[in-house]
Amino acid sequence: MKAVLFVMLLMVLVPLQGHAGYKEDVGYTALQAELGASTPLGTGIIATQVEARSTASPYPYMPDPTDPQFNGKTLVDKTSSGISETSSHATTVGKYFYGLTSSLAPGIVSIDCYEVNHFIGDGLLHHGRTTQPGYTLSALDKSSPSRVANHSWVGATASVADDSAILRRLDYLVETDEFLQVVALNNGTTSRPLLGGSFNAIVVGRTDGNHPRGTVALDSRYGAGRTRPDLVAPFSVTSYATPIAASAVGLLLEVGKSPSLATDPVRTYTTNRDGVMIYNGERSEVVKAVLMAGAERVTRNSTSYQITDYRREPENRSPNGLDVRYGGGQLNIRNSRHMLAAGEQNSAEDDPTAGGEIGWEGFDHDPFFGGLGSNAQASYFFTIDPADQEHRMLYAAVAWNIDIDGGTWNVFNSGATLHNLDLLLHDITDPDHPRLVGASQGSLDNTENLWLPLAPGRSYRLRVVPGEGQPPFQWDYGLAWRISTPPDTDGDSLPDDWEVYYGLDHKNPEDADHDDDGDGLVNRIEHLLGTEPRNPDSDGDGFNDGMEYNAGSNPLDPFSTPPAPEVPALDRVTLSVAALLILLAGARQVSRAAVPA
Description:
The chain is α/β, with parallel strands linked by helices. The protein has a domain at 8-309 and 323-343: CATH 3.40.50.200. The protein is built from twelve helices and 21 strands. The chain has helices at 22-25, 28-35, 88-98, 116-123, 160-177, 238-256, 284-294, 333-341, 496-501, 523-529, 545-551, 569-593; strands at residues 6-9, 46-51, 74-77, 110-115, 148-151, 153-156, 180-184, 202-206, 231-233, 269-271, 277-279, 361-369, 378-383, 393-399, 403-404, 416-417, 421-427, 435-440, 447-453, 459-466, 475-484. A seven-stranded parallel beta sheet has the order 3-4-2-5-7-8-9, with helices on both faces. It has a four-stranded antiparallel beta sheet with strand order 12-21-14-19. Strand 3 (74-77), helix 3 (88-98) and strand 4 form a beta-alpha-beta unit. Helix 3 (88-98) packs parallel to helix 6 and helix 6 (238-256) packs parallel to helix 8. The model is unreliable at 11-17 and 587-597 (pLDDT under 50).
């Protein structure tokens, strides 16, 4: 019995035009200014658009192929319903996904279009059949040639068992074919969006946070409490936030197709079931990681949609290093493209010759990890020069897919295995005494994320390790990072992210001269030194930061403490005589106490 979906569009059917400055807000304008005619367009990427039917007869779902934004593009109706009318919702979503001037990936020219129930049923996922997702009805049929799909709809079946089965099929499609799925959350905070529970998809919300948070329980594997969304975009409806993220994926896939970016010493590419060679820079885990590490935690948008208090309150901090409202933050395609274009940089364990030394931005795809015939840790090293104020925040994300067994082409096995990874940052300036300064150790999600201030003159080790309590395994992951100093909105010499991280006001220049922890150092000096403005003893050695700074010891090194004060010779004699008198007085007291009554 095939499940019937109860599907709704994510907005009213009157098309809402996104704000004119969204390209500036997501970093695309800056990317164009930097690259000019060399800006990636998503060229060569085949895309898929999945749409719900409009609510009025004859219930169309196709974009309007005559819209000027689609000139030169081929929109293929894979559902083939014979309905000639088009959907205004699908048309507007398409504009933001692959439109000539309205998207980030105008080079996408081939688009497969599905009605959602057909996509989930006979069209691609084959829910209700035994056939593997991607094939049609024969092992001779190739899987979809698409690399990215957009889902600007929400819905659910009447059964959580059906929902779970559909999610496993979607996650298999991502894992097996590197077919990235970009999924919308609902508008408003009360909903059970079906695809939002996927592990391997990229789940998108709104910068204003008006969307559901977390996942609901479907079964023992697809459980409640996982962090959703993965990132957000600056739109008033998720229908349009999502295709902007899908468009960004298309742009990044073109960048990642370059063989020169992949340098893993064992495997630089994989091949999907359609026979397409997928290089490490375009793997699903890497693309998700660069999107999340590239996202902005503090925004400076042209609208009122802003992120100003990322992870400030404990209730908004997820165990995997995200903000439960915004995920990794707001999409920034310039940051993400920079990390991808910097190329693959391997861990010390995978490439001992290079020693794991990494640049200010980059990525790595480790195809064999987990301790079962492979390395059980991956180490990456970098150092901040003592005078360097340009690289003071770390943004890092590691992503991996849930493993869906898959079975055979005609007998699908939906068994799922989720491995657990952790992401750690150590200060190793003193290599004999490494100090843990940041950790992301969630157990429910398949990403771990770090957003941390860094200190000048310190050496660091970024490390991926298996989470505790699991046997050795062999699996792959994608890691992305950038090390930079964000803008300073109020001009007080304190970068916005540093202020928000420590609970200061990034729009109030006066707080630079406050001493919030009472250690004798104002916030401006705390930032220059790399000490914590809300902790009077940053290294935990019992001496406050101001005392150490004034005494010439290092307030970031627990083994560097202020020297004991010199005692003048005369004072030492006086103290010695006093101590002798005290001892003699104590002896007399003991002697009297020992006399019998």
